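haha ok so turns out i had the wrong file open the whole time. this is the CORRECT one, sorry everyone. sequence first:
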Amino acid sequence: MSDSSVGRRDSDKMDLVGLVAAPGTAVDDTEDLADDDFAEIQKTKSYGSRQKQSHSNKYSKVQELLPFPFCPNVRPLTISDLESCVALENAAFTNPEHRCTREKFEYRLATCPELCIGLFCTVVPGNAKSFEIDTLPPSHPVETGRDDGARTVLLAHIIATRSDGRVVTDAAMDYPRDFRTSKRNTSGLGHQDAGSTVCVHSLSVHPKLQACGLGKLIMKSYLQQLKNSAIADYCALICQEYLISFYKRFNFEHQGPSEAGFGGGGWHDMTLEIDSLPPYSQRVLRS
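then structure:
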């Protein structure tokens, strides 16, 4: 779901880096994260207590890959996260045509940051040992002057805009070239302030953390936020055929082949009526 649909890497393995919403997503159809885990992240204000759970079954797959505690934090993205998003996207998609460009990231993060979220993890560089991840260098300190130098590192993101249509189009995936100098968008391209459909353009998970449930985690968190905020009526994305069943798990409906020609075409339209989403948070509160 980035600017292309899922991003299969160079092999046939479905990975967390290639889910495609609007083309560049990264999720694995085999992910088995418990349905309500993502909501717990939203309820938790202090993530320190979660460190004691880092080896639990919930995150055992991702924890096996990390030499430091996995304490996920899902939050809105801002323009200050630009370089981290670019680094993640470049790592997630080996095909440049399926990536969201730096200019598109800049446009979307500056124009509609409320529609973009990231999944972060606090990393103390000294505890990272030999583990290297592309999003560590552009990451920001957790707190100014913190003795251990802890940084908040991006592991996955969802980037989106609003559209007047019900499906993702090439115009929706584009952007006005004068966005830095013009406050009004009269081009018909990119984000439409009054649009009733949220178009997901990028769902990316770092390739080193494939098949660990992070794609499912951030997508369910995102859909919960859309439902709770009531900012739109529909959510749409485009994906490759092999990911249709994955998105159906989130209540997306397959609308057939897409007319979008991004990255060479071959996508499928997926749409979701936001009001039809289950009340995830209520399910968690009842448990």
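The beta strands are 72-76, 117-123, 140-141, 151-163, 197-205, 234-239, 253-257, 268-273.
again sry for the mixup
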